[in-house]
Structures are given as C-alpha cells and as structure tokens.
Amino acid sequence: MINALFNQPNYQAARKMLDATVLRHEAIASNIANLETPNYKRLDVSTNFQSELSRAVANKDPNQIASLRPSIEVDPNAAAENKDGNSVQLENELLQLSQNSLTHTATTQMLTGTFLKLRMAITGRSV
Q1: Contact of 93 with 31, CB cutoff 8 Å
Q2: Residues 53-88: b if buried by 16+ CB within 10 A, e if exposed
Q3: pLDDT tens column, 58-108
Q4: Contact 48, 70 (CB under 8 A)
Q5: What is the DSSP string of 81-107?
Q6: How far apart (Å, rounded) are the C-alpha atoms in residues 77 and 127?
Q7: Is the dihedral of CA 4, 8, 12, 17 positive or negative?
Q8: H or E stretch including 30?
Q9: Element (H, E) at 72
Q10: pLDDT tens column, 27-53
Q11: DSSP single-letter state for residue 78
Q12: 126 Cβ neighbours under 8 A, 6+ residues apart
C-alpha cells in the first residue's frame, strides 16, 4: 500500500523536480559568486532534464522517472556581454533565483500534501 503511494508517477516527478530545484539553486549561487570572474561561464541544470522528465511523466512510468538524474552544465544559451568573457548577468540570476524559489515552494507543497494524506490514513486525523 505505502509502496504504491511512493511509486506513483506524480510523486516521483515531484521528487525529481525538487532535486532539480536544489541543483539550480547551487548553480545560481555559483553564478552570483563568480559574477566578476573573467571567462566564467554561467551554469544551470541540464536543458534536457525538463524534456526528459516531461516525457517520462507522459509515459506514466515511475521507473523511468526514478532513473532520471538532473545535472549541472554550462548554459549553452548564455552569451558573454562583457569584454572579460563572463556570461553571468546579475539581474537574470536574481530573476532565476526568485522563479526557482517559487518552483521549490510549490513542489514542496505538493509533496507535503502526499504526506498529509498518508498521515490521515494512518491516524485518522489531518493534524
């Protein structure tokens, strides 16, 4: 019974999204820390991760979802606008940080809802 709850595609996808938001937060922190480092290239979560996750969710295969691993890579879309070759823009990083925080919060709330259902099933109470 409990395994069925934790093997649902939506639960697995939420966990993977949470993993990705944590990695993106690390990448953003690194980008901001290296804002003035010459030739530093902006980092982000792999551009393929979101499409692979969407495809796995569409297939409703929890094993395929569980096998996905988000990773950090150099952002291929970031271009250096300064003479020093650095491709980080502070305004963009702050925007990404805000969006990532919202995604993290929403994903955490989805997972919390799953745990509240489990608690209610076990105890008969929601709190």
Answers
A1: yes
A2: beebbeeeebebbeebebeeeebeebebeeeeebbb
A3: 998 888 998 999 999 999 999 988 889 999 999 999 999 999 999 999 999
A4: no
A5: -STT-----HHHHHHHHHHHHHHHHHH
A6: 46
A7: negative
A8: helix 9-33
A9: strand 72-74
A10: 999 999 999 999 999 999 998 998 999
A11: -
A12: 116, 119, 120
Length of the chain: 127
Instruction: Please state, as a whole number, how many other Cβ atoms lie within 10 Å of the Cβ of residue 126.
Output: 8
Q: Which residues pair with 43 in a beta bridge?
A: 74
Residue with tokens 């395929």: 64
Answer whether 9's CB lies under 8 Å from 62's CB: yes
Residue type present at position 90: L
**Helix or strand or coil: residue 122?**
helix
Identity at 87, one-letter amino acid code: S
pTM of the predicted model, to two decimals? 0.85
Distances (CA, A) of 9 to 28, 61, 71, 112, 122: 28, 6, 20, 16, 22
What amino acid is encoded at 2 in this protein?
I
